[in-house]
């Protein structure tokens, strides 16, 4: 019924302003999402209702076989979907308003047909099919535009959040304005004790960050987490200055994690982050663990001071570094056990599961290679320091 449809749609189109007023009223009454969220201004709602009603009525009167021409009439639907996504109106509320609009168009066309007595029952059935096919097609256009805009918003939010995290970890929170903006976005206080966490990135997932956040929330500790390319980073707002609960919670992390010393406020979290990364570096690759910097200060000291490390290794390990890998490994292990047992050959032999004389022979070999005397009893602090850090120091043969 192209002619009849065109005539009815044109008649209704002539009073589209009145129809728009009615549609806005009905949406406000029957679609509470608009009223409760209050994110769509009244003039915006009126204009989008007007434009979409106009397009639906124009489409009713068009020849549906010309797909390219019909597609031009979806512009209002796409614009509405995009705008509502930016306004954060839920898609369900938006699509409900289009169904209300479709029902109103159909009722207006029926009323017009009865007033003009121009269409029989079969024509009206065909018209009903046409109207609801158009409503479905337009709703699809709305949803597609909404989802595209939503994806763009998510990307923008992610980029903004990533930039914010970069700023925090680079010390920008010393600027009060940035600190308060960061506090609002990651929902953590500007002031108060903080600890930072750095964990291996290969195990970092959104499920892990949700688990950590939930478990800490349950203990009254607020936190924010960011998955980066090489690590999982956490900022933890502590009720006090004790990290015991945090350390216990981090046992759910696969692999290793480092926890910083406690710092004061968001302005200092960049320092805490560097400390957490340093603590993570003190964990041997073959022995995953969750450690805090306070427990790993000797290792951290050497790792953060290459000059000091090189000097101590030259003084105490120089000859050992020239040995083949297997012999070097055995002698380094013996040296570590000797230091840890306070220079006791008997206790070192028990640790190494060998004879006491074997330990003494290896100690003499180490002394010959290094030119240093390995005393029993009190161990030199420099030797104790370098031995404690041995598992994380680069023990490569010299070229």
Cα distance, first to last residue? 91 Å
Largest sheet: 6 strands, mixed
Strand content: 5-15%
Order of helical and strand elements: HHHHHHHHHEHEEHEEHEHHHHHH
Shape: rod-shaped
Cα-atom radius of gyration? 36 Å
Structural class by helix and strand composition: alpha+beta
How many helices does DSSP assign? 18
Mean pLDDT: 87
Q: Low-confidence parts, pLDDT < 50 over ≥5 residues?
A: none
Which percent bin holds the helix content? Answer: 55-70%
Q: What's the β-strand tally?
A: 6
Structure commentary:
This protein is 63% helix and 7% strand. It has 399 residues and is an alpha+beta fold. Strands 1, 2, 3, 4, 5 and 6 form a six-stranded mixed β-sheet that branches. A hairpin with a 3-residue loop joins strand 2 and strand 3. Helix 2 packs across helix 7 and helix 15 crosses helix 17.
